[in-house]
């Protein structure tokens, strides 16, 4: 894979093509032109942390990169849907996206959702786990060493060690032991381990459900959990040769090559994404 410089975008080969010729256009401009022909049937998906907003030592302090909100607001009326699919709760996304109109929010890997500013709906199977998560957050604060940031999200608990990287192995070992004890799912991320209810919801399932009736989709993500979303677009394209799917990695050193290698296109930062979406608007409008 070629390396990208700041503000640039490169292409990497699609996954698992076998002997088929790549259907993905060779550059972003052609990809947007192809999208314009089916914009009314295209969904644009975005992760939040590391994609729309730069990662911060304090996960509560992050803000979307410049130009991102304006671009999303302009894109929403010209495509079928704009959807944010994130590990964050829906309320957090709503607050940090400034109440954008016409944008669907999927929080906690799909355990919560809100359509176009509507009420937040929680996956019923996850609700009984709220007390367990609250108790787990209290236990983590009591037992994990100073430097660990415990983020309680009502339906999950995220254990961060960004400000103390040396704690990673200890925090991971503790978190995985608790997950086994309580029967929870584990989601690894960028200097974070998240513990979730054993409910069958993740980014791949959310994207797979939404694109069943779509003619095309883009997914923008930066972390290993986004690879499942990329795979959902690959599966949809494999089932329907007329479906047009593009996977974009907002690459970063913390996840290495794994996410970028799974993508069609790569950007190097949320700021570059804001510029990229702004340049895409004339193609769609």
TrEMBL record:
GO terms for biological process: trehalose biosynthetic process. GO terms for molecular function: metal ion binding; trehalose-phosphatase activity. Residues 1-24 are annotated as: Disordered. Removes the phosphate from trehalose 6-phosphate to produce free trehalose. It comes from the Bacteria. It catalyses: alpha,alpha-trehalose 6-phosphate + H2O = alpha,alpha-trehalose + phosphate. The keyword Magnesium applies. It is an enzyme of class 3 (hydrolase). The lineage of its organism: Bacteria, Bacillati, Actinomycetota, Actinomycetes, Micromonosporales. The keyword Hydrolase applies. Pathway: Glycan biosynthesis; trehalose biosynthesis. Its EC number is 3.1.3.12. It comes from Micromonospora palomenae. Its cofactor is Mg(2+). Keywords: Hydrolase, Magnesium, Metal-binding. It holds the Pfam family Trehalose_PPase. SUPFAM superfamilies: HAD-like (SSF56784). This is Trehalose 6-phosphate phosphatase.
């Amino acid at each position: 894979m070629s390396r990208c410089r700041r503000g640039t975008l490169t292409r990497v080969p699609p996954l698992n093509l076998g002997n088929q010729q790549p259907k993905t256009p060779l550059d972003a401009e052609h990809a947007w032109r192809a999208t314009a022909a089916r914009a009314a049937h295209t969904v644009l998906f975005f992760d939040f942390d590391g994609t729309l907003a730069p990662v911060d030592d304090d996960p509560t302090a992050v803000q979307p990169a410049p130009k991102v909100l304006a671009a999303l607001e302009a894109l929403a009326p010209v495509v079928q849907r704009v959807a944010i699919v994130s590990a964050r709760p829906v309320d957090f996304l709503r607050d940090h996206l400034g109440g954008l109109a016409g944008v669907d929010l999927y929080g906690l890997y799909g355990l919560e959702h809100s359509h176009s500013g509507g009420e937040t709906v929680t996956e019923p199977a996850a609700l009984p786990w709220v007390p367990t998560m609250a108790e787990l957050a209290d236990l983590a604060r009591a037992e994990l060493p100073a430097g660990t940031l415990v983020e309680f999200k009502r339906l999950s608990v995220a254990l961060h060690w960004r400000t103390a990287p040396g704690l990673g192995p200890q925090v991971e070992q503790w978190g995985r032991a608790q997950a086994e004890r309580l029967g929870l799912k584990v989601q690894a991320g960028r200097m974070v381990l998240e513990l979730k209810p054993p409910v069958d919801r993740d980014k791949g399932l959310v994207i797979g459900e939404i694109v069943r009736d779509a003619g095309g989709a883009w997914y923008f993500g930066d972390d290993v959990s986004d690879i499942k979303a990329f795979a959902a677009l690959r599966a949809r394209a494999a089932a329907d040769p007329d479906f047009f799917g593009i996977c974009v990695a907002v690459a970063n050193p913390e996840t290495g090559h794994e996410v970028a290698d799974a993508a069609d296109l790569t950007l190097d930062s949320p700021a570059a994404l804001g510029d990229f979406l702004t340049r895409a608007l004339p193609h769609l409008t």
